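Form 7-S
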Amino acid sequence: MKIAVIGTGGLVGSAVMRRWNSIPLSGKSACPEPPDELIGFDLPEFDAASRISTDGLVSLRPDVILNLASINLPDWLESHPNTARTIHVQGAANLRHAAAKTGALLVQLGCGEIFYRDGDAPPHSEDDTPNPESVYAVTKLDAERAVSEYDRHLIVRTSALFGEPGTQGTGNFIDTILKTVRRTRTIQVLNDTRVSLTDADDLVGALRFLTHSGTTGLFHVAPPDTVTPAEAAVFLMNACGLRNHRIVGITLKEYGCIAPRSRSTALDASRYRALPGAYPIPGWREALQRFLDRRAQGNAPPLANGGE
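Output:
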C-alpha cells in the first residue's frame, strides 16, 4: 500500500513515519505482510493549502492520503482566522480534490474540541451534534465537512494526544510537563477539564488498522477512561519519582485562555472498539507508563537536577 503522509513534522506525522510498519495487524505478534510505502510531505516543500502542491499527488497515485496537517494553537488562531481556514479547510479541500482524481482513501484527523461544553459532560459519541466555539474548532470541523463530501473518506477524532514531539510540532501537554519540572517544583495544571489522553503511537496503530481494513466514515479513537490534566500530572510525577514537585490545580478561567475552550473534549470510542480486530487503545495510565518506559530506554535527559 502506498501512503502519502501530509504533515510529517507534527506529533502524529512523525509517529506515523517512525512506527507505522512495526505495528502488527489484527492482533498478530509480527508483521509478515509487505511493509507499506510511506511518502512524507511537509512545509516548506509541500503546502496542502496550495493546489500546485496537492495536484502533484495525482501522479504519485497513492492508495491513501493521510492528512495530519494542522496548527494546534487555539489562542493564536483566534486573531488569525484566515490562517486557520487556509491550513485546515482549504488544505482539506485540496486533498479531497487530489483523492477524487486518484481514487485514494482520504483520512482526516479531527478533534474533540468541536464539542464545546462549559460544564461537565459525558464522553462525546459520533452521533452528538458538534458546537464549536473557537476559530480552531470551527475550522477543524469545516475541514471534516470538506473531506466528507468525498465518498472514500475516513475521519478520525481524538481528544488529547501526547508522545515524542515532531520537528514542527507545537508540543503537547505531557511534553510541556516534562520540560517544566526541570525549572520549577511547583506546576500549575488544569483541574476542571476532562480529556481522553491518548499516546500518538497508539493512534498510529488505530490508523494503520482502519486503513488496512478499508474502513470509511467517522470514528472516535480514545481510551476507555477519561482524566483531568491535573490527575495525569500527579500520576506522571509519582511515576517519575518526583516527590518534591507539587501539582497545583487551576481552572480554565484562572489559566486565562484567549480562545474558548471546552471543559470536556473526552470521546466515546465504542464504535471503534466494536470493529473486529481493532487495534486496542489502552487506558491512560498504562499508555503514560509505556511512554515513560520508552523514554527511559531512549536515554532521555534527567527530569530534574539532583534526582527526586
